[in-house]
Amino acid sequence: MGGMRFEELLDQVGGFGPFQLRNVALLALPRMLLPMNFLLPIFLAAVPAHRCALPGIPANFSHQDTWLEAYLPREPDGTLSSCRRFTSPQALPNTTVVGEGHSPRELQGEQSTEPCPQGWEYDHSEFSSTIATEWDLVCEQKGLNKAVSTFFFVGVLVGAVAFGYLSDRFGRRRLLLVAYVSTLVMGSASAASVNYSMFVITRTLTGTALAGFTIIVMPLELEWLDVRHRIVAGVLSSSFWTGGVMLLALVGYLIRDWRWLLLAVTLPCIPGILSLWWVPESARWLLTQGRVEEAHRYLLCCARLNGRPVGADGLSLEALSKVAAAERVVRRPSYLDLFRTPRLRHISLCCMVMWFGVNFSYYGLSLDMSGLGLNLYQLQLLFGAAEIPSKLLVYLSVRHAGRRLTEAGTLLGSALCFGLRLLVSTKMSWSTALAVMGKVFSEAAFTTAYLFTSELYPTVLRQTGMGLTALVGRMGGSLAPVAALLNGVWLPLPKLTYGGTALLAACTALLLPETRRAQLPETIEDVERKSLQEEQMPMKQVHD
After folding, report:
1. Best CA proximity match to 360, nearest among 445, 236, 258, 273
2. Burial 324-346 (b: 16+ CB within 10 A, else e)
3. 3-class state of residue 27 by DSSP
4. Which of 17, 98, 156, 364 could form a disulfide with 207 if both were Cys (CB 3.0 to 4.6 A apart)?
5. Are 508 and 350 in contact (CB under 8 A)?
6. Which residues pair with 84 in a beta bridge?
7. Of all residues in the chain, what percent carry a pLDDT higher than 90?
8. How do residues 5-50 score in pLDDT, each as one tens digit?
9. DSSP state, 276?
10. pLDDT tier for residue 100 given thresholds of 50, 70 and 90
11. For residue 168, what pLDDT is reported?
């Protein structure tokens, strides 16, 4: 293929400079909003201590505990039941709680119990209200509480497909605006929900809108960057995710009412919409669409901001038209293109398994914070802080060990942490330490997966490929909260499921080709050609 490649154009206008840094900074907001929404159920759907609502305590009755014991049965572990009460109050020594006319057998304590007929009373010391206290999503209804996360991720899953396809058709920037506006509208609607059904529907649609951020932001940054600086930008921009995780702990600590909390993570979309004025469309995408003048305008702006004097011949419209002709090989990509050729089919199938495992184990760990001995805010802050060393781990490891080994190693690490937590009792601080270690590994696996996948696919199919893997990943994300309910079947089952999936994903990652120091493939032919070269390499070495 003669003529100039886009990489060479980028060298002329500067592949990493003030223009690209401004771009990363402008796209920091959607990156921070994602974890604040994805991990919101930790606070939004928290279940405080609760017990059956009981008739009022008589005025002359000083011991509340005795009063509770008269009404509430004890669980096998000795605590008072949260979900059941005696059908009629029980007689206790030296008290006259029991009314007249009860049979002696009832007085001896062989009492029948019932689910709470008058609803529940909640401990409001930590949260003034959550969706669990608002709609009584406890006891028999606790599955509905977990279902909120699942529906949300199903929404993200649908959005990933739609945005992946639409942003390849209509451009990254336009679809980013759609994502911002619909997140703002749907987020505000869920904060105003009048019942559980309305909340689930609006929350699911918020997930669909937020998927736009996951799909568009990374490629919009990458398509303006040269090969050498992709890692730096990738790690830098994913540290905004970590910022969001820690910020969520602070916002959750300050705002204890779920409606206001939801508004607090939705309203930042307004400055986001305004910031789009300065976000550039991907010149690479514009050229594949044959929109040469627009690409020319953005490239000149890039050269000007980066202080690169551009020769008249270098960025002439003819030169750009040649690049555009070379870039415009496949006009309208479809998901089938990812499976048509043998090499791409192999990459796509492996990436799907890898992404499922990465998401399933990450959200399995992040959304389940029970039994770790710290309060929710400390734990969320600690989990956020744990992501910082993981970024450093990724940065060093992908440069020296390569993408493939880093991905497999971090997934193996998180699988081991799940396994070891099964052997340690939850009462020990070891369990918390292992959970934090697991968080370091699973976050590192997540960061690497983004970088790795975007380098495996050719430009013409990059969005589509990221869309597909994100789709499968979100399936993992949506099943993670449901898998936590498996503890009803057998206590260690959720951790076994999370760990086993991470292990499978680690093995699959080893089947992918290494992309360290490789040029981003532009066309499907580039990917297939690379495969032929790799097959011929060992042959050459044998002949030498």
Report:
1. 445
2. bebbebbeebebebbeeeebbee
3. coil
4. 156
5. yes
6. 115
7. 35
8. 788 888 888 888 899 999 999 999 999 999 999 989 989 988 888 8
9. G
10. very low
11. 82
C-alpha span between 379 and 372 (Å, rounded): 8
- Please tell me what DSSP assigns to residue 2: -
Q: Is-contact 152 207, C-beta < 8 A?
A: yes
Inter-CA distances, 488 with 78, 114, 358, 484, 516, Å = 19, 21, 24, 9, 44
Tokens read off for 208: 């669909």
Distance CA 530, CA 307 (A): 35
Indicate the average pLDDT of the chain.
84
Residue in 493, 490, 251, 457 with CA at minimum distance from that of residue 347: 457
The DSSP call for residue 129 is: B
User: 465 is written with which tokens?
Assistant: 């490929």
Q: What is the pTM of this model?
A: 0.80
- The helix/strand/coil state of 359 is helix
Question: Is pLDDT at 447 greater than 70 in this prediction?
Answer: yes
Q: Which of 129, 127, 119 is nearest to 199 (CA)?
A: 129
- CB burial of residue 197 (10 Å; 0-12, 13-18, 19+): exposed
User: How far apart (Å, rounded) are the C-alpha atoms in residues 529 and 363?
Assistant: 37
Could you tell me which residues come within 8 angstroms of residue 533 by beta carbon, excluding any fewer than 6 positions away?
none
**Whole-angstrom distance, CA of residue 176 vs CA of residue 213:** 7
What six digits make up the tokens of 363?
């959200």
Q: Are 115 and 84 in contact (CB under 8 A)?
A: yes
Confidence of residue 129 (pLDDT cuts 50, 70, 90): very high
Q: Is the dihedral of CA 164, 169, 175, 179 positive or negative?
A: negative
Local structure of residue 446 (DSSP, 8 states): H
Looking at residue 139, its pLDDT comes to 86
Q: What gap in Å lies between CA 403 and CA 396, rounded to an integer? A: 11
Crossing angle of helices 196-222 and 142-170, in 10° steps, is 40
Asked if 306 contacts 248 with a C-beta cutoff of 8 angstroms, the reply is: no
Beta strands in 7-154 (DSSP E): 50-52, 84-86, 113-115, 120-122
Side-chain-side CA neighbours of 188 within 13 Å: the count stands at 9
Q: What are φ and ψ of residue 226, in 5° steps?
A: -80, 170
Q: How many CB atoms lie within 10 A of CB 94?
A: 6
Q: Which runs of consecutive H residues, i.e. helices, occur in 119-191?
A: 131-134, 142-170, 172-191
Question: Binning pLDDT at 50, 70 and 90, where does residue 273 land?
Answer: very high
Q: Residue 354 pLDDT more than 90?
A: yes
Beta-bridged to residue 51, according to DSSP, are 121
Rounded CA gap, 164 and 468, in Å?
8
Identify the pLDDT of residue 539: 41
Q: Please, are residues 88 and 106 in contact by the beta-carbon 8 Å criterion?
A: yes
User: Confidence class of residue 404 from pLDDT cuts 50, 70 and 90?
Assistant: very high
Lowest mean pLDDT among 29-43, 327-341, 370-384: 327-341
Closest to 453 measured CA to CA, from 439, 468, 438: 468
Cβ proximity of 415 and 358 under 8 Å: no
CA distance 16 to 227: 10
